[in-house]
Design goal:
2 domains, 11 strands, 314 residues, alpha/beta, Rossmann fold, six-stranded parallel β-sheet, one-carbon metabolism, 12 helices, binds the ligand Nc1nc2c(c(=O)[nH]1)N[C@@H](CN(C=O)c1ccc(C(=O)N[C@@H](CCC(=O)O)C(=O)O)cc1)CN2
Amino acid sequence: MTNVIDGNAVADGIRADLEDCVDTLDNAGVTPGLATVLVGDDPASETYVSMKQRDCEEVGMNGIHVELDGDAAPDELYDTIDDLNDDSSVHGYLVQDPVPDQIDYREVIRRIDPAKDVDGFHPENVGRLVAGDARFKPCTPHGVQKLLDAADVDPEGKDVTIVGRSRIVGKPLANLLMQKTDGGNATVTVCHSRTQDLAEKTRRADIVVAAVGAPELVDGSMLSEGTTVIDVGVNRVDADTDEQRSSSSQNSSSSDDTEKGYELVGDVEFDSAKEKASAITPVPGGVGPMTRAMLLYNTVKAASQQEDVDVSLP
Ligand SMILES: Nc1nc2c(c(=O)[nH]1)N[C@@H](CN(C=O)c1ccc(C(=O)N[C@@H](CCC(=O)O)C(=O)O)cc1)CN2
């Protein structure tokens, strides 16, 4: 039987543990503060930041949301960043990616105070991660490690193939999985758009992580029996019609999707991959909720560091 790893349940457990940390901080007179900054009106980004704000409320953190117009000048965003850097009630913040073309996201990241960079994207934090001394593990890679742990899959000694070399997922995840620590010690292959014979690299892996943003790129024919499959992609595609849906996957659209006009699919073709996998994450309900849970984790860690209050992080 394939283990379909329930990301919502694992994230719920982490949030429950973080509530204890929030209580500890509260007893010391500290409310962890997380700010989200959204530039423009990308619908998926709007969904993610509102979920992040709702998560804050649920665990008793202070959520602050700042929205700028899609045509905002870079200086307007830099002023917002300066204000958040100076605001002691904000322990962590992020600028939702992507940003509109007139803004250089790398420059944005460089301006964020590294101590408040709960995404872990600032060059200082990237350097610390690579050096094996992470201040904040980036949320999605950290979430993937926690999901593997929850599914009792130890990467030690395993061949891991990561499909995708993004700054947010592929690169930091490769670094974390190869480190000489618990949750690491894997042999990691990173594939990308110029990789030749991708299927050969995925077939030889014990663990495949698909993080490329290409709907259903990885299917069962590209996997060996017993592989653990982690699907990071959250892609919005046109909703199936009723006729298509009646003959399609158990992990696909509902009538809600038809109303919204899109459905969410991963980078993995779920049904055929599930036939081969020993464990697999679904989309939605796999890695996405973990990304959000680990953002709360980093915010609690930031508050604990800045306010000098010890907490026992999960
Ligand atoms: N500043 C950042 N920008 C972006 C990040 C990031 O970590 N920091 N990651 C992605 C998007 N992302 C986080 O912001 C994200 C993606 C998906 C989910 C999620 O909960 N997905 C749900 C489905 C949600 C839906 O209904 O659409 C799921 O998979 O079950 C949360 C966060 C890019 N930008």
